Amino acid sequence: MNMKTAFFAEDEPLARDVLRDAIYAHPSLRLVGEAADGASALERIERLRPEVVFMDIQMPEMTGLEVLRRLDYLPQIVFTTAYDQYAVTAFELNAVDYLLKPFTQARFAAAVGRLLEGPIHERDTLGLALAAATNAPARLERILVRDRGRIFPLAVGEIEYMKSDSKYTVITARGQNFLVRIGISELEAQLDPARFVRIHRSTLVNLDFVESMRADEQSQLQIHMRDGTVLGANRDASKLLRDMAI
User: Fold this and answer.
1) Coil, helix or strand for 17?
2) Which of 72, 97, 213, 230 gives a 20 to 30 Å CA spacing to 39?
3) Distant-in-sequence, close-in-space partners of 154: CB < 8 Å, separation ≥ 6
4) Does the keyword Manganese apply (predicted)?
């Protein structure tokens, strides 16, 4: 039997358990290591030289794309992520497969089947694709969110507004709030600027859900959302919104 050495990089404990169990259970894979962040993944992959790497994209310290860019050799890659906007990028990078979390055992087995058939790709080809992917993020159409133990897709058009700190973003949609582990700047870069406007360092609004805008005593706009929420726009955003008015 053709057995391949495997490594995985994943920062979420539950997802690590799922991947670890899946790799151990597959007769064609031999797990040689794992990592919970990008920096550790880079060091261990270069030291262990696995044939196959299951790579999360959003991780602390370094993204999966950054890890691949810095490797001095190219293993076969299967991306594992909760964000389906990276699917096109994954296949542009010649990834063998792309597992959208949460995935089934059957879906994992199908990915391993492709690993056993697929060749190792050229380093130069990957480098060019990585550069293109880093400089030109794909337009986001939906995002997977968690709610009471469920994970489901949320269309970008349903998002009313977002508030964020440096690491987490609260998305308001469908009359609920969903916490996602991705910064608002990264989300903004993949959204339609004609629809989503940054009104404050930590706030992004979907104009489709704005009821009205009214100036306060400092001539800065107060954004009245359809759900009754009032959000303050800073000076630059207020000017931008005024300029957008016909």
Assistant:
1) helix
2) 97
3) 142, 143, 144, 145, 171, 173, 174, 178
4) no
Domain boundary at 135, 152, 176, which? Answer: 135
Closest residue by Cα to residue 234 from 204, 212, 191, 206 = 204
* Nearest alpha carbon to residue 195 among 135, 246, 137, 139: 139
Name the β-bridge partners of 98: 79
- Torsion-angle region of 26 (φ positive above 0: left; ψ -120 to 50: alpha; else: beta): beta
User: Domain containing 169 — which CATH number?
Assistant: 2.40.50.1020
Contact 115, 77 (CB under 8 A): no
81 and 64 co-located in one domain:
yes
Q: 29-46 pLDDT, tens per residue?
A: 999 999 999 999 999 999
pLDDT level of residue 92 (50, 70, 90 thresholds): low
pTM: 0.52
What's the domain range around 58?
4-135
19 and 120 fall within a common domain: yes
Nearest to 60 by CA among 36, 89, 82: 36
Task: Tell me the pLDDT tens digit for each residue of 146-158.
Answer: 776 666 778 889 9
Whether omega before 75 lies within 30 degrees of 0, making that bond cis, reads: no
CATH number of the domain at 104, please.
Answer: 3.40.50.2300
Tokens for 41, please give them. 């993944």
